[in-house]
Amino acid sequence: MKITFITVGKTEDAYLKDGIDKYVKRLKHYTKLELIDLTELKNTKALTEEQQKAKEAELILKKVNATDHLILLDEAGQEFTSVQFANYLNKRAVSSSANLVFVVGGPYGFDGSVYQRANDKLSLSRMTFSHQMVRLFFVEQLYRAYTIIKGEPYHHQ
């Protein structure tokens, strides 16, 4: 199973980049992971929030294939414990999902077209985090899930 992680914009803070790189390297032992940073929209002051979400949706949906299982990281999504998330990933792998695509949207969330295409929505927390921090939190949780699946000692319960 391949995992694709799509984000709008780039991670700029060095300490976050370092953390993301650390977990991406660790994940190579467990899964094929592709990170896609979509270019942040320019000159958005002339656009309404809805127009901005629609333009971001075009960029996101161009990267998603018809057979991909699309999961939105969304504040209204389902919340999991780390063990539940590991079970979710494991079930997706067993059900022959060839490619799981996780997406972090832009500053205003997702356009309706992205919600319509999505297979699932997942919330990392009820709290709001910066988009840059979400990237680090997600790859760490992905790594944690794989160590849980493999029965390795990273996660303590």
Would you give an account of this structure?
The structure is a single chain. With 157 residues, the chain is of the alpha/beta class. It has a single domain (2-41, 48-149), classed as SPOUT methyltransferase, trefoil knot domain (Alpha/beta knot, 3-Layer(aba) Sandwich). The chain is 42% helix and 22% strand. The protein contains five helices and five strands, in the order E-H-E-H-E-H-E-H-E-H. Strands 2-1-4-3-5 form a five-stranded parallel β-sheet. Helix 1 (14-27) runs parallel beside helix 5. The two termini are 27 Å apart. The relative contact order is 0.24. The model has no long low-confidence stretch (mean pLDDT 93).
Question: Could you write a compact summary of the structure shown?
Answer:
Homodimer. This protein has 157 residues and is α/β, with parallel strands linked by helices.
Salient structural properties:
single chain, 157 residues, alpha/beta, Alpha/beta knot, five-stranded parallel sheet, 5 helices, 5 strands, 22% strand, globular, cytoplasm, RlmH-like, S-adenosyl-L-methionine, Ribosomal RNA large subunit methyltransferase H
Integer tally of domains: 1
CATH hierarchy: architecture: 3-Layer(aba) Sandwich
Main sheet: strands, sense, barrel: 5 strands, parallel
CATH level 3 topology: Alpha/beta knot
Give the C-level CATH assignment. Answer: Alpha Beta
Q: Based on helices, strands and strand pairing, what is the structural class?
A: alpha/beta
Strand fraction equals 15-25%
From the alpha carbons, calculate the radius of gyration and give it in angstroms. Answer: 15 Å
Q: Helical content, roughly?
A: 40-55%
| Averaged pLDDT | 93
Low confidence ranges: none
- Spatial shape: globular
Identify the strand order in the major beta sheet.
2-1-4-3-5
The CATH homology group name: SPOUT methyltransferase, trefoil knot domain
- Distance linking N and C termini: 27 Å
Q: What's the SSE pattern?
A: EHEHEHEHEH
Tell me the number of helical segments per DSSP (H or I, 4 or more residues long). Answer: 5
Total strands: the figure is 5
EC number: 2.1.1.177
InterPro entries: Alpha/beta_knot_MTases, RlmH-like, tRNA_m1G_MTases_N
Binding site for S-adenosyl-L-methionine: 73, 105, 124-129
GO cellular component, one term: cytoplasm
